[in-house]
From TrEMBL:
Source organism: Streptomyces nanshensis
Similarity annotation: Belongs to the phosphohexose mutase family.
Record carries keyword Magnesium: yes
Cofactor: Mg(2+)
InterPro entries reported for this sequence: A-D-PHexomutase_a/b/a-I, A-D-PHexomutase_a/b/a-I/II/III, A-D-PHexomutase_a/b/a-II, A-D-PHexomutase_a/b/a-III, A-D-PHexomutase_C, A-D-PHexomutase_C_sf, Alpha-D-phosphohexomutase_SF
Gene: manB
Sorted UniProt keywords: Isomerase, Magnesium, Metal-binding, Phosphoprotein
Xref: CDD domains: PMM_PGM
Signal sequence bounds: none
Keyword Phosphoprotein appears in the UniProt entry: yes
Record protein name field: Phosphomannomutase
PANTHER family: PHOSPHOMANNOMUTASE (PTHR43771)
């Protein structure tokens, strides 16, 4: 019997196949998903991992067993699954482990309209049902309820068409674009989305291969964008884009091959969205740069600060009617995309902004990248709570310093801020620091790390 506490995370299911979960459990998850969502029909998609097709089929069988009709959309990105859930108004399940190594797989689930399913919105109930059924056997359909039908549908062209109605690139200047798909689902979606646009595409690692033969599909790790940076510099391209394994996140490098911080992308896209919907709210998590709320206010919008994590972002988007939301991890959320995250739509915004004026990308984003940041620094510590308490004690009561604990510990001064958060899944403390200059950022970073690692 699988230990579901190890594979059911805060927002999804994720674990090693077949060691931690397998086809039999996928079928139980499908049945539990239908029972909890009370769905009469669902949509299911999967990435390019070797285990994804048979796991997703098993999930569909479990759903159909309880009477739900299943639409299989096959190979897709996670945001393509969200599109299908929104357009078809059906609960959905995406089989992917995002950027995790090849032996992993998982399920990202949503209700109709791409509404998130997390621990507080159905995932805990799904886990409980799977645990019960793993002991007693799979459930039987209700009396008189026929088994659901399973059919197939291709939504890739509809997905691409929808994105292109949201950002107009037809009049931009021609751009040379290097895209590193990391052998992930960007290799499936980018050619269709970019087709016919004034973009010269240089494709890196577009072959779908869930064993990731070239590098991990995790652009958050600087080691995984080295090839992209080199190709941009060698070819003199205007921009480089890197997608993660399920292509819901997009990272950007400029014409020099230098990474553009996701906070700068958040600010740029926020300005563009506010131009078409003045006065709207824009969501940002508490680790995004000071520049994001500054730009939002300058553009007449209302910045709304939230905890880290897509369930919090999406909840605030729904509550406030926000037009856009961004996270430091390169997740970008759009009201026009059912409040779901789509790295592809963010990429189209960046391409439109770049191609709509003559300057290189490094100059365009400079106005949105105003401060010195440390990036996320992880420290492995066994006593997370104790080390965090020591940091709090060191800064509490200092003149001109404010503390809040919305998500971990955030300490703010006039010239700098930092956030220290515990990982939900590992014995790690994650530190992010930002300051008005590099020297101050480095000094604050070193002071906090000295306490954390004492």
């Amino acid at each position: 019997m699988a230990d579901l506490s190890e594979i059911v995370k805060a927002y999804d299911v994720r674990g090693v196949v077949p060691d931690q979960w397998d086809e039999a459990f996928a079928e139980l998850f499908g049945a539990a998903f239908v029972r909890v969502t009370e769905a009469s029909a669902i949509v299911v998609g999967h990435d390019m991992r070797p285990s994804s097709p048979w796991l997703s089929r098993a999930f569909g069988r479990g759903a159909a067993r309880l009477g739900a009709d299943v639409t299989e959309i096959g190979l897709c990105s996670t945001d393509e699954l969200y599109f299908a859930s929104g357009r078809l108004d059906l609960p959905g399940a995406m089989f992917t482990a995002s950027h995790n190594p090849a032996q992993y797989n998982g399920i990202k689930m949503c209700r109709a309209g791409a509404l998130p399913v997390g621990q507080d919105t159905g995932l805990a109930e799904i886990r409980q049902l799977v645990e019960n059924w793993s002991e007693s056997g799979p459930p039987s359909p209700e009396d008189g309820v026929p088994e659901g039908r399973i059919g197939q549908r291709d939504v890739l062209s509809d997905y691409a068409a929808h994105l292109r109605t949201l950002v107009d690139l037809t009049a931009i200047r021609p751009l040379s674009v290097v895209v590193d798909a990391g052998n992930g689902m960007g290799g499936h979606t980018v050619p269709t989305v970019f087709e016919g646009l004034p973009l010269e595409l240089d494709a890196l690692y577009f072959e779908l291969d869930g064993t990731f033969p070239n590098h991990e599909a995790n652009p958050l790790d600087p080691r995984n964008i080295v090839d992209l940076q080199q190709r941009v510099r060698e070819t003199g391209a205007d921009i480089g884009l890197a997608f993660d394994g399920d292509a819901d996140r997009c990272f950007v490098v400029d014409e020099k091959g230098d990474p553009v911080p996701p906070s700068a992308i958040t600010a740029l896209v926020a300005a563009r969205e506010l131009a078409k919907s003045p006065g709207s709210a824009v969501i940002h998590n508490l680790i995004t740069s000071w520049s994001v709320p500054e730009v939002v206010r300058e553009q007449g919008g209302t910045p709304v600060r939230t905890r880290v994590g897509h369930s919090f972002i999406k909840a605030e988007m729904a509550r406030t009617g926000a037009i856009f939301g961004g996270e430091h991890s390169a997740h970008y959320y759009f009201r026009d995309f059912w409040n779901a995250d789509t790295g592809m739509l963010a990429a189209l915004h960046v391409l439109a902004a770049l191609g709509g004026q003559p300057r290189p990308l490094s100059e365009l984003v400079a106005e949105y990248d105003r401060y010195a940041a440390s990036g996320e620094i992880n420290s492995r510590v066994e006593d997370q709570e104790g080390r965090a308490a020591a940091v709090k004690a060191a800064f509490q009561g200092r003149d001109g310093v404010e503390l809040d604990e919305l998500d971990g510990l955030t300490v703010t001064s006039r010239d700098w801020w930092f956030n220290l958060r515990a990982s939900n899944t590992e014995p790690l403390l994650r530190l992010n620091v930002e300051a008005r200059d590099r020297e101050t950022a480095d000094a604050v970073r070193d002071e906090v790390l000295a306490i954390v690692r004492a």
